[in-house]
Design brief:
The structure is a homodimer of 510-residue chains. Chain A is mostly helical. Helix content of chain A is 64%, strand content 3%. The first copy, chain A, contains 21 helices and five strands. Chain A binds chain B through residues 12-13, 16-17, 19-20, 23-24, 27, 31-40, 42-43, 45-47, 49-50, 221-226, 238-239, 241-242, 279-280, and chain B through 12-13, 16-17, 19-20, 23-24, 27, 31-40, 42-43, 45-47, 49-50, 221-226, 238-239, 241-242, 279-280.
Chain lengths: 510, 510
């Protein structure tokens, strides 16, 4: 296996570059003084160029061919052949992507994000529209380069979620709507839980300490990680040995920092749990996306942030264990609140205009709206000029709300200006997968509920590591799901979870 | 100038890599969780390899030849030709350095630093001796590759201080000893100043705030910088637009954090003051050292840290301005201390075993000792086995002290284990240059003393920027000195400074 081992060395160099880019991005978002902005852009562009040069180099092509011969008798789904496959696919994609398209996309991304920020501040969609139109055009070109059989959107969504298609998403959304819309109706008719105490003054240092205590209890290893503050929370890794998370704090908004921390911890557990032997291989690199990441797909990654944030962190048994500790931390703020009241408050359902503030039921409706609109933009059935009206119509249809302005409507997310067409579905896919994985763990791990009730997360984390984390990007998401749960993507466990949880919380008639 | 401009683009890519390596090192020393250590090493090695590949590439060779023709009629000391010269020299050095030597040095550096740490902890020189012997051997080889005319040490010291030689250093040291040894005798016979109040409890947050306030008054721009904590203080830059410093704090050791901050601020002012058009060129890159840095040499850089720390920060007029503010910050700690007493305390001379704790007079004696020993190791007149005895003999000769063990003697510094033979002299050269620059500024800037007395550092910083900072590495250190002060390296201003300052402070007979 001389060529394979040489190729692994070559790939390790590419991985080092991608991990370094992550460090530069982490620093830019948490530490860098504002003046460093322009030169940081140069540094990132140079590194990205170096990684890309290595991916299209003839040396790689030759090595790949030799290594494929060497490994031909190994199992198709083993680490070696999957490693080579990922490298070949990325190399071929970069070789057939016109340099002009790459350059235009990078340029437009910077320009459009800047313009979007200004347009949102001024509540002026018309200002952003011409750039969005150019972006839609480039995304269509990109879809053609990537290739698809049914719908151009399939090519784009596949960047983030391999094998996902527009048709599959429509089916999934149909099932979700059939459950969520009537459930939402019933919730709206019920008595809303108390929640005014969540807006009391919670000192930031104690918010941080409590969040970090839970994160460590979940298994987040601070010898290989750290928690910082940033404007938008995120998780980022520079191999499994250095996996960092951020959150944000407001004194009158405890749940934002707390569930933000648990969400990012879920992502971090995934990255810290990747098998060491996958470090610096193509199986911890999103090569087409030029991003060092150990998770199988955006949706799979999101399934872990949602699992730890929602299925664990917003559950009744979680708060039965942790609420006394929370009250110890915030005595005066919570003296008149019991665990059940607190649990109901952090699960309150309340349709709102803003996706990132949405609860578990309405969140998916925000996603469906965006996916339906972006797919229509890509296939040409919706024009950019008609987008604001289409947005508002769907908001009315799904959430019975009408945005008072475009800033709180069609301009709220950065994704389209950044060229991330096709990434929105992965948030909902993550929710669906989370319930599948959790149901499988419950079925397979003896006494899982009892350990969770005792605040012992090792059994759950152990199952997730064994069936998901350690594999990195070795399996495609559907393959990983099938192996771990015995099923492909299946909305049923998620729908049952929502039904049980919210009929209980809101004491709805069964 | 087509080739020149293409070459500048090429060089910008190398600079981006070197700046990125600085970011990785900064992160490793201030932020990184311990687990990230091994993969961080891989990332740095990969980036260093990429920069080196670019420096020896045939593409660069061709570009250099064309660009040299294009610029042949431009001034020899202009930015363009100096930029090309730096690139050519580095490229040729890397081309003639055997790969084996580079590899052996990198490997031995890691091994020897690790061993040195253990040997120092166990106070066991014999444990370190075999690795030091191998290091001396590799340093001799390196000296041969670099080349020299008189003494092999010239080649090594030239890495850090171009054009400096063993002979020039011997002359310089002779002058310094002739002044410092008798001055030290007289000081030892005088009454030592009070200083017990420096060991009182100074809360760390206030130490930090005061140091940063002075740093900003000096002109350190926090839009392009930040102050962090690290085990060993340092300054590091990722272009002039992001220049970071660190310090360290102990509650009972105010002067360590304060003068540490001012020292690193001096380095930072140099980097922040480099002309923007030199960013990402060879004139802000130490290419042979694979390090992004804007200063002309180690000695020149050190001249600025010493100038701001000692000539400004330990002066009487500095404390006349700042002492009331310090007392405001530390009311209870300093209520029984006046400005003059404080000023005398922070300038107290007291021979000690440890270089990094030394005062302004004895510091240079520590350096001379090291330089004399390392030059003798390199030319073979001293063997590694005789080194501890030679160290102790010189300590007795210069400072009348005998180390109680090798940990506080020959094993105290990391430099030899890290392979930095030839870097020690730059600390003393920095002291000497600092006085030359300061004397020239005083002669050329009207009312400089008055502005310093008023806490206005813009006139001094303006002169330093004009004559030193903005030029980056365009001029060789001696050339820079000559242009700014009218002289080459000259110990006279420094000797006068020491004489005047310490006869005054200790009220010695003239």
């Amino acid at each position: 296996m001389k060529a394979y081992s040489e190729l692994n060395q070559y790939m390790a160099g590419i991985s080092d570059i991608l991990n370094t880019m992550n460090i530069l991005n982490w620093d830019a978002r948490t530490q860098m003084p504002t003046g460093g902005n322009v030169t940081r852009g140069f540094q990132l562009a140079t590194l990205s160029g170096l990684a890309q040069e290595k991916l299209v180099a003839d040396q790689l092509k030759t090595l790949l061919e030799k290594a494929e011969v060497e490994t031909a008798s190994l199992p198709e789904d083993g680490i070696e052949r999957r490693n080579l496959k990922a490298l070949r696919e990325a190399s071929e994609l970069f070789r057939r992507t016109p340099e002009r398209l790459t350059r235009d996309l990078a340029g437009l991304r910077a320009e459009a994000q800047h313009c979007w920020g200004q347009a949102r501040a001024k509540n002026d969609f018309a200002m952003f529209a011409p750039l969005l139109e150019r972006m839609v055009g480039l995304q269509r070109e990109l879809a053609e380069v990537i290739g698809y059989t049914e719908h151009p959107y399939d090519a784009l969504v596949g960047i983030y979620e391999p094998d996902m298609t527009h048709t599959k998403l429509q089916n999934l959304f149909r099932q979700l709507k059939a459950k969520c819309l009537p459930l939402l109706e019933r919730i709206r008719a019920a008595e809303p839980p108390r929640e005014e105490f969540l807006g009391r003054e919670f000192p930031l240092g104690q918010q941080r300490a409590f969040g970090l205590e839970v994160a460590q209890a979940f298994g987040y290893d601070l010898e290989r990680g750290r928690l910082d503050t940033s404007l938008h929370p995120f998780e980022i890794s520079f191999t499994r040995d250095d996996v960092r998370i951020t959150t944000r704090y407001q004194p009158n908004f405890l749940t934002m920092s707390l569930f933000g921390t648990l969400h990012e911890t879920g992502h971090a557990l995934y990255e810290q749990g990747v098998a060491p032997e996958l470090s610096r291989t193509a199986l911890t690199s999103d090569l087409p996306g030029m991003y060092a990441v150990g998770g199988a797909s955006f949706g799979t990654h999101e399934s872990q942030s949602r699992l730890w944030e929602n299925l664990v962190g917003r559950s009744k048994i979680f708060w039965r264990h942790w609420y006394p500790r929370l009250v110890e931390t915030f005595k005066t703020q919570l003296e008149d609140v019991d665990a059940e009241t607190f649990h109901r408050a952090v699960n309150r359902v309340s349709p709102s205009l803003i996706r990132v503030e949405a609860d578990e039921i309405t969140y998916n409706l925000h996603i469906m709206l965006r996916v339906e609109l972006e797919a229509a933009l890509i296939d040409g059935s919706l024009s950019v000029s008609d987008l604001p009206a289409a947005w508002n119509a769907k908001m009315q249809q799904y959430l019975s709300l009408t945005p008072p302005d475009d800033a709180r409507g069609v301009l709220q997310d950065i994704h389209w200006s950044a060229g991330y067409f096709g990434s929105f579905p992965t948030y909902t896919i993550g929710n669906v997968m989370a319930s599948q994985f959790f149901a499988a763990a419950r079925a397979q791990v003896p006494n899982l509920e009892a350990s969770l009730e005792a605040g012992d997360y090792a059994p759950l984390r152990g199952w997730l590591t064994e069936h998901i984390y350690r594999h990195g990007r070795r399996f495609r998401p559907q393959e990983l799901l099938q192996r771990a749960t015995g099923h492909g993507l299946d909305a049923q466990p998620y729908l049952e979870y929502l039904e049980t949880k919210f009929t209980g919380l809101y004491q709805l008639e069964g």
